[in-house]
């Protein structure tokens, strides 16, 4: 039987759209490449804007909090790193002051927060 409360309009999609989870896999790649040995603990995601196939995107991770943890019986010490995560695409916008001036506008496609564990790491304090 068909659920009458769910409707779809496939005709509004003119080109294939990249799945949001595929976009969010950029964060794992960023952590794994830039911080080898890091272990993903959690991730929240909000999908803000669709991305069509062949549209370039940029993944950005911003550290918002570091917390040093001591070794425990079942887990080693290290640093917990809380991060803001975003995937952007760009669109050209025209500046109202000058008809010929085009600028690129960042459009957030995926946003959220992640926590990674950096085993054995410590926080250096500047003196």
Q: Tell me the number of helical segments per DSSP (H or I, 4 or more residues long).
A: 1
- Helix content range of the residues, please? 10-25%
Largest sheet: 5 strands, antiparallel
What is the ordering of alpha helices and beta strands? Answer: HEEEEE
By secondary-structure content and strand pairing, the structural class works out as: mainly beta
Global morphology? elongated
Question: pLDDT below 50 for ≥5 consecutive residues: which ranges?
Answer: none
What is the number of beta strands?
5
Distance between the termini: 69 Å
- What value does the Rg take, in angstroms? 20 Å
Portion of residues in beta strands equals 35-45%
What keywords describe this structure?
127 residues, mainly beta, five-stranded antiparallel sheet
Describe this structure in words.
The structure is a single chain. The chain is mainly β and 127 residues long. It is built from 1 helix and 5 strands; from the N terminus they run H-E-E-E-E-E. It has one helix spanning 20-34; strands spanning 39-43, 46-47, 57-69, 78-94, 102-119. Strands 1, 2, 3, 4 and 5 form a 5-stranded antiparallel beta sheet that branches. Strand 4 and strand 5 (102-119) form a beta hairpin. The protein is elongated and about 55 Å long. The termini are far apart.
In short:
A hairpin with a 7-residue loop joins strand 4 and strand 5.
Topology:
Blueprint: H1 20-34, E1 39-43, E2 46-47, E3 57-69, E4 78-94, E5 102-119
Antiparallel strand pairs: 1-5, 2-5, 3-4, 4-5
């Amino acid at each position: 039987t068909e659920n009458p409360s769910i409707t779809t309009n496939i005709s509004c999609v003119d080109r294939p759209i990249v799945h949001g989870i595929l976009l969010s896999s950029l964060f794992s790649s960023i952590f794994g490449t830039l911080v080898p040995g890091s272990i993903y603990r959690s991730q929240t995601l909000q999908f803000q804007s669709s991305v069509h196939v062949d549209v370039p995107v940029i993944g950005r991770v911003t550290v918002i909090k570091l917390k040093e943890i001591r070794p425990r019986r079942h887990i080693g010490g290290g640093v917990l790193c809380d991060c803001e995560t975003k995937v952007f695409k760009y669109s050209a916008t025209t500046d109202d002051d000058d008809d010929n001036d085009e600028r690129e506008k960042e459009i957030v496609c995926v946003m959220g927060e992640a926590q990674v564990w950096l085993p054995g790491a410590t926080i250096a304090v500047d003196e």
